[in-house]
Design brief:
Layout: E1 3-9, E2 14-20, E3 25-29, H1 36-48, E4 52-57, H2 69-76, E5 80-83, H3 87-91, H4 93-99, E6 111-114, E7 120-122, E8 125-131, E9 140-144, E10 149-153, E11 156-157, E12 160-161, H5 171-182, E13 190-193, E14 199-200, H6 201-207
Parallel strand pairs: 3-4, 4-5, 5-6, 10-13
Antiparallel strand pairs: 1-2, 2-3, 7-8, 8-9, 9-10, 11-12, 13-14
């Protein structure tokens, strides 16, 4: 059975997640640490819980979700995964950073690829990969039916949806992704978003102004 723990990092208030199994192995989702204090917070949690990092897995590659990739990959010697169609966003990270007023050289750790529609194995557990483009071209969500939760990245938020005015974003595509991939999940499914508090599928079906 997988457990999930949430951190909130960087000036964008991005949610980074650690998923761990009963064997103390863990996967870091969307590492967004932007300074030494945030890096130390994540490492301290890993060490205090005696976790063994296995991989970095990203919902997408916008700047606020990738700031900690090289640190984590270098410290633990683990691979970094994302959807292949997200590579233009990853490669444009330096330009995006400048748009927000800061310098960033980009991710140096080579990416490996997650395919939508194929389960991603976390040892004896599996995450279902849901393809949810629109916020970015290769956005994916990680669904764990046994635990009744989904990590939606920046596709779906509590009471809102991801912005679509960045490179290769598209509003109609995002709405279609949410309606076909996320809203059909059981209503009690807990949604862990890229920003803000957790919500449920039922709450977003009934109250999200972009979807009702």
């Amino acid at each position: 059975m997988l457990s999930i723990h949430t951190f909130t990092f960087n000036p964008f208030q991005e949610n980074t997640y650690i998923i761990s199994n009963e064997q103390q192995e863990c996967w870091i989702v969307d590492p967004g640490m932007s300074n030494t204090a945030e890096e130390n917070e994540l490492v301290r949690f890993i060490e205090e819980h005696r976790l063994i990092p296995q991989a970095i897995i990203n919902t997408h590659a916008h700047i606020d979700h990738i700031l900690g990739i090289d640190f984590i990959a270098g410290k633990y010697g683990i691979p970094f995964y994302l959807h292949e169609t997200e590579m233009p966003i990853l490669n444009n990270a330096g330009n995006t950073a400048r748009m927000f007023g800061f310098q960033y050289e980009g991710v140096k750790t080579p990416a490996q690829f997650i395919a939508d529609g194929r389960p991603f194995a976390l040892k004896d557990d599996q995450l279902q990969i849901l393809f949810v483009p629109g916020h970015s071209p290769g956005s994916i969500a990680f669904y764990y039916p046994e635990g009744n939760w989904v990590i939606s990245g920046d596709a779906l938020f509590s009471g809102s949806i991801g912005r679509t005015d960045l490179l290769m974003g598209d509003f109609d595509t995002l709405i279609r992704s949410i309606r076909t991939q996320l809203l059909p999940l059981p209503g009690e499914t807990r949604v862990y978003s890229g920003h803000g508090p957790a919500t449920t599928i039922a709450a977003e079906k009934s109250g999200n102004p972009f979807l009702v």
